[in-house]
């Protein structure tokens, strides 16, 4: 057994947590003392309120929260695949994790393109989202590499 499946699983698990954090945190954009996210906008004093939905924030929220489903399914399949030594479940989980990374890329690109025309400074949530993309992509990719390398046998 190699360490590659465990590294892939760890990357996907961290990507799930980072995607959830990025989705609910209010630090997508920062303009002076004001910060805004996919659900809330906050002032420097810490008072937050629900955001007024705009097309870019709604699309970003859809893609960011939408990526949690395939990331969660991917993580679950990878865990059960490793536990039960079933390569097919692990491979399916890897594919789901990779697809989730692509979904996140679309959401973050929409947000980035829509806010580039304004003098916007991206906040921590935006970068956390990109970290989730990178880790989800790496985890899914490493899982697929492991599955393809060990394709001669049906077990782990």
Automatic annotation (TrEMBL):
It comes from the Eukaryota. Keywords: Membrane, Signal, Transmembrane, Transmembrane helix. The chain crosses the membrane at residues 59-80, 92-113, 125-145. Residues 1-23 form the signal peptide. This is Uncharacterized protein.
